[in-house]
Specification:
With about 120 residues, this protein is mostly helical. It has 5 helices and no strands. The chain has one domain. It starts with a helix and ends with a helix.
């Protein structure tokens, strides 16, 4: 997956455009362009007799990744693919907010410790 695709995916997630078909296409494209799938496509191009086999391998790889995503996202097992991608984007945003909050708390407690040590309360 190229840097520009990752940036577009992050931008889509950050701007909360999670319900647009373009966002779904970006996520599908990101899943589709894993190194495993690229190699399968390359093989299918070089060996015309394996075209159907390469497509089946790609489909299996995408399905395997979707199943893995369903286990990661809370409640994902009961969701269809479209809703799963929406929930995934929301879950990522929530995790990013949690990390931001934890960093703020950590910074706050570090400053308290510094003040405490300055006052001789160490």
């Amino acid at each position: 997956m190229g840097k520009s695709q990752i940036q577009r995916l992050k931008l889509a997630i950050q701007t909360k455009r999670t319900t647009t078909p373009r966002h779904k296409a970006l996520i599908l494209n990101a899943l589709h362009k894993s190194p495993l799938n690229r190699n399968a496509r390359r093989r299918s191009r070089t060996k015309p007799t394996r075209i159907a086999s390469g497509k089946a391998e790609e489909k299996e790889a995408v399905e395997r990744k979707i199943r893995a995503l369903q286990t990661i996202v809370p409640g994902g097992e009961s969701l269809g693919v479209d809703k799963l991608f929406e929930q995934t984007a929301e879950y990522i945003m929530n995790l990013q907010h949690q990390v931001k909050a934890m960093r703020a708390l950590s910074s706050f407690f570090e400053s308290l410790e510094k003040e405490k040590s300055k006052c001789g309360g160490g």
